[in-house]
Amino acid sequence: MNHFESFIKEMKDFLNPDSVYTMDGSDGEAQRLVEEAQKTEVDGRIVLQKLNQEIYPNSYYHRSNPNDVARTEHLTFVCAPTKEEAGPNNNWIEPKEAKEKMDSLFKNSMKGRTMYVIPFVMGNPKSKYAKNCVEITDSIYVALSMRIMARVGAEAIKSIGDSADFFKGIHSIGDVNPERRFIMHFPQDNMVMSFGSGYGGNALLGKKCYSLRIASYLGYKEGWLAEHMIIIGVEAPDGKITYFLGAFPSACGKTNLALLEPIFKGYKVWTLGDDIAWLNIGADGKLYAINPESGFFGVAPGTADKTNPVMMKTLKNNKFYPTLFTNTAIDKNDNTPWWEGLGNIPENLSDWQGTQYTDKTKPAAHPNSRFTVSVYNCPTLSKEYDNPNGVPISGIIFGGRRKDTAPLVCECKDWASGVFAASSIGSETTAAASGAQGTVRRDPMAMLPFCGYNMGDYFNHWLNIGKKLKNPPKIFVVNWFRKDEKGNFIWPGFRDNSRVLKWMIDRIEGKTGARESEIGLFPQENALDLSGLNLSKENIDKLLNVDRQEWKKEIVLIEEFYSKFGEKIPKELRDALQNLKNKING
Ligand code: OXD
Ligand code: MN
Would you give the end-to-end CA distance of the chain in angstroms? Predict the structure, then answer.
């Protein structure tokens, strides 16, 4: 028995399922599981319902328990050996205690259920950057979702071979009780135990749990970075493709930017990833990125032909089987998924909980309702997507959601100032995590909920990576979400964000100068192409301006955040903060 087989046996003996099924990743298997899911009731609901196959081929609908619709950060733990190693950015329980707690929940928990064994690889199995993994779950929805999000099945079993070096993810939906819901990470053991939730970010363990929290720790040990970032290639009219990374907090438009249809003729965005990037230093000293995932788990509301035409095509494409919709509303007349932003409210609509939609003061689709769809359905998928070496990065974009303070775009002078800006960036919270929405919190590199170790060490790791890069990418900070006094968004966003990308390419190519400000470099007058936009001079100024009063308040928040990390904040960052303070006060 090899390590993979003995892990399955160990889990079977411990979890005591009625049957065990190991996924082979074939199309036939997916069809069988989808058939079964349409007959299976879990937690009082049929797992999958078939949607209109003419309009949305291969699509199925899932409705979750209303208590299980988002990531639960307060129930997520990093069980490093000491609290200090986990850092103030993580909830912590001593590993032995955590393991005992989880063992008592998991023991015999699959009695009467099927235990699905999901062998999978994050990244192209041919890539030296790829990682082997196994998830054990009792959820057929999770098994099918993982098939979309990762390379599942026979090729993963082959890749694991006789090795003992694979991630172990143990998941059970339990009884979907928030009182017994925990997502526990054991970075030192390359293991996650997740109990009591079927929600993507809590249950598809290849995603946030492994590819960010555990992988960020592995990257720290091994000299690379696991980041909450999109990867895109922007093709200019001369055919040259410039590769960018973009880090934004959850539900701040990453998927829209990753599948952007630029407004400019001759420009094209090629998609490589919409959520997670693994970054390595190549033999040539450049930064290279791969997307470890193979699917999109995107926020449905707001996705429409006007805002994201490429995603609408992706969702209606029939190449890869299946596509899943979770917690959207349903137009009962034509059995299609519906969400806010898609247009007029259909007459005969059932809301995300399955009741007739009548109370128009509430959204019909859950604000964090999602689609799960393969990257291979995406018409703009880059031909470099599967390149085992990844793509060389020229620009990194960090973003937050701020109605004030943060300008539309600003370029950082060098890597260290970029790391400072990213480490201190704030953003308003969204529906992607349970809890209050719209409160500003620091969300460094959009990684606050995902960094699997002390963020002070993480900042230092970022600085060290920069020192090793021969030709570091330029770093930009953006904010698409500024509002005017009436509370309306000033910047149109979505496809118009290509205006900002175009300016960034000009900067990378050295084609345009920049204007210095207290916080970094701004576009020179008229350098940002705003043609055809109806923006007043006053609003343009607001978008590209530093309001010292707002920034004074911002500095207090940054200081407060940094102080949580004490001596762990690298000197370069403390100096950069002091520098900013002098400029704002000066
Ligand atoms: C996601 C998230 O699901 O960031 O990608 O919450
Ligand atoms: Mn995300």
Answer: 69
CA 347/CA 329 separation, integer angstroms: 12
The correct CATH number of 227-295+385-585 out of 3.90.228.20, 3.40.605.10, 2.40.480.10, 1.20.910.10 is: 3.90.228.20
Contact 97, 3 (CB under 8 A): no
> Cα separation of 288 and 389, whole Å?
7
Q: Which atom of ligand 1 is least distant from the CA of 228?
A: 4
CA 186 – CA 380 distance, rounded (Å): 37
Give the bridge partners for 227, in sequence order: 277
Q: Are 115 and 12 in contact (CB under 8 A)?
A: yes
Please give the CATH superfamily to which domain 3-43+71-222 belongs: Phosphoenolpyruvate Carboxykinase, domain 1 (3.40.449.10)
Cα–Cα distances in Å, from 422 out to 86, 436, 517?
Answer: 20, 23, 17
User: Which of 330, 276, 339 shows the shortest CA–CA distance to 303?
Assistant: 339
User: Nearest residue CA, atom 3 of ligand 1?
Assistant: 201
* Residue range 287-336, pLDDT digits in tens: 999 999 999 999 999 999 999 999 999 999 999 999 999 999 999 999 99
The finding on whether 250 has its CB within 6 A of some atom of ligand 1 is: yes
pTM: 0.98
- Judge if the beta carbon of residue 255 lies within 6 A of ligand 1: no
Angle between helix 27-37 and 140-149 (nearest 10): 150
The DSSP secondary-structure symbol of 362 reads S
Ligand nearest the Cα of residue 76 is 1
Q: Which of 64, 72, 208 to mutate to test the pocket of ligand 1 (most atoms within 8 A of CB)?
A: 208
pLDDT digits (tens, 9 = 90+) for 460-481: 999 999 999 999 999 999 999 9
Alpha helices, DSSP H only, in 391-454? 415-423
- Residues whose beta carbons lie less than 5 angstroms from ion ligand 2: 250, 275
Q: Where in the chain is the domain with CATH 3.90.228.20?
A: 227-295+385-585
Q: What residue owns the CA closest to ligand 1's atom 2?
A: 250
Q: What is the 3-state secondary structure (H, E, C) of 200-239?
A: HHHHCCHHHHHHHHHHHHHHHHHCCEEECEEEEEEECCCC
Element (H, E) at 257: helix 254-258
- Angle, to 10 degrees, between the axis of helix 415-423 and the axis of helix 455-468? 160
Residue ranges of the chain assigned to CATH 3.40.449.10: 3-43+71-222
User: Which residue ranges in the chain fall short of pLDDT 50?
Assistant: none
Q: Are 408 and 400 in contact (CB under 8 A)?
A: no
Q: How far apart are CA 406 and CA 53, in angstroms?
A: 44
Distance between Cα 427 and ligand 1 center (Å) = 15
580 and 559 in contact (C-beta within 8 Å)? Answer: no
* 3-state DSSP of 276-303: CEEEEECCCCCEEEECCCCEEEEECCCC
